[in-house]
Design a protein that fits this description.
Length: 378
Amino acid sequence: MSPELQIYSVPIAAMIVGAFAFMLAPRILGLKKDSEGASLQVMTLRVVLVIFLVLQLSDIVLHNIVGIYYNRMLLNMSLTVFAITICFVFFNVSGRMLDAKFGATRQIDGKMVAVPSYHSRMASVVLLGAMLIILIYVLIEIWGLNSLLEKTGFIGIIAAFFVLTSAIWLPDLFHGVVLLGSSMAEEGDTVILRDRDRLCIINRLTPFYTLLLDVDKNHRILVRNCDLMKWGIENYTKRASVDGLRRTLEFKLGYPSPTGARDPVTNLFEKIEKSVDACCARAFEDDHIMVNKKLSFEWAAVDAGDYALSFRLYYYLSPLPETKLTSKIRKHMRATDNAIVRIMFEEAFARSLNLATPALVHLDTSQKTAQPAPPHAP
């Protein structure tokens, strides 16, 4: 092999690999054209590869012009970019393989997909640590850090960087593993953020952040894993029993008039009971109302206030779908709640149950205002 070819063998080989990687970027990342974020990831990889190719060509040009006075700085920079890119691509591909091997399999929107689990996430953390060690060794070889002082100094800088930034990324990594280990959060689950009172769908769960889909406002929310644990989440997809998610609607009724032959309180409760039974029967007949048709509606008087009697209506939803589409959850939960409120209002109105805000003062305008009594004579 000629000296010129030997000098340029590494740059030429790296350029050939970079050119093929540029053309096959979607396949290397394992992304489909219609997958989420595919265009951004492919564009990022291609931009990095273009920077790598430009640095390689610049190094060859400068080496031919300057000759022996050129220290191949651009070559080292391009190989550094190439090594980091290789590690990124390898970790991306290996992460999907680990999810398929050790992760959980769920049916989301009618498709069987592999989602991260506690075991796959721990395997990814071990793989990431091993790749960082390999990358540090490769960078040491690229920049020619031969002496022990240079090697320990370089490793010390990287170690100091991780130590100083550990307060930022370590809590998110820890809480992300805890979420997966407790099975409280998985992709496709419907959860509510307790402190924020938001109904969301988990779209993506990563080691450091979680991407949520707001059901009511139909937009995305990016949350750190530590903030997600701090706020507290309630998982509506994972039921406590086979009965389903128990929903509650509260109504207020004005107190009945004491006039009448029958006991007004007993008559009021009978009307409520019949209204609830009729509402339950109509809900079971409607296929668009997603309730558990094996369990009847329940009700209970919960508060006898100064001006109204409060009672709550309880019913169970059918199992929530594992989905990443907010429209399905809105139809399953919000539309069901609205339909039951409408039916309950119609049944209460048919039985003369007034669900309006009770009047606090009743004025009888048919009688004349009483005149004040004259003062007593001394």
